[in-house]
Give the backbone structure.
Amino acid sequence: MTSRTEQFPAGTLLEAVSTRAELSVAFRITAVLFVTVLTVAAAQVSIPLPFTPVPFTLQPMIVLVGGAALGARLGMASQILYLVLGIAGLGVFAASPVLPQGFARLLGPTGGYLMTYPAAAFVAGYLAERGFDRRYLPSVIAMGAGLAIVFAGGVIWLAFGAPHVGLSAAVRTGLIPFIPADILKILLAATVLPAAWRFLK
């Protein structure tokens, strides 16, 4: 019996699907757009929290799974496109009664998280290209690495950018409250791509 690695050489899930279906570059572009749209949709699932300016959203899970599925460059492109749409003033960022849409959102307290999305997708995709998305535990590592980038950027921006609350307060309001839920999201997200590879097998 051949192993999964023998059946599918190093590469992303998107590359495996494209090779099998003999699909064009247009399919890859469509896949990038699809992940961008999913990121927009995930932003609308937003729960404001009374003790922090950072809402709870499903975006990080979509960013990481999308990045892993598309690969480093395409995953990053999907999140750059998301930010470009937001900067252009389209209502793609999480709804908020106090935080504006448009470029000003990136200068606010959640800007650090948003600006890390391309890098987080790139890292998840880079690890996926090296087979981290084919088994559960390596997939957890890939998702965790991407999420660490999101939190690092978000907390640093809260601490030293806007609103400049200091590192201790940034960790207390921008990291600690989200750890339990985001660990659960990582554990769930890490099941998606190994399951998809098993399906292709």
In short: The radius of gyration is 17 Å. Strands lie at 46-47, 56-57. The chain has a mean pLDDT of 88.
